[in-house]
Amino acid sequence: MSRLARHHLEEEENNIDLTPMLDVVFIMLIFFIVTASFIKESGLEITRPEASTAEPNPENKSIVFQVTPTNEIWLDGRRIDVRSVRANVERLHAQNPKATVVIQAAPAANTDTLTQISDQSREARVNDVSLVIKKQ
């Protein structure tokens, strides 16, 4: 055998034929695609009732405090001091015992102001206090 023939034979032995591996990969891919399309997710379909006469319930009116970026506290269109929050909450809660407290704060509002409003509301025996951050 000549040198050229031996070199050609060694070169063929060094190459790995990837065709069978690619065939297996494509067959597996087809198998997973076909089986995945037949899987049905289980779940419940819920039809929600539509409210045709939705009216706000005055009994569930919230006590809404608005806190500005400069930490001013507003209630019902008037500016109040943080020390008067408890008295205002007690008065409004006496008028509407189901009322909750909502604090609408600007993103730049001080956390200390929000905590003081929350604490004073809880001292006035209103434990349902929510915080809403207003987008600017």
TrEMBL record:
Which keywords are on file for this protein? Cell membrane, Membrane, Protein transport, Transmembrane, Transmembrane helix, Transport
Q: A single Gene Ontology molecular function, please?
A: transmembrane transporter activity
Transmembrane residues, as ranges?
20-39
The Gene Ontology biological process annotation of the record reads: protein transport
Membrane topology annotation: Single-pass membrane protein; Single-pass type II membrane protein
Q: What Pfam families does UniProt report for this protein, alphabetically? A: ExbD
InterPro entries under this entry? ExbD
Q: Name one GO cellular component term.
A: plasma membrane
The protein's location, in the record's own words, is: Cell membrane
Per the record, the domain of life is Bacteria
Spell out the family assignment given in the record's similarity comment.
Belongs to the ExbD/TolR family.
What this protein is called in its record is Biopolymer transport protein ExbD
The organism named in the record is: BD1-7 clade bacterium
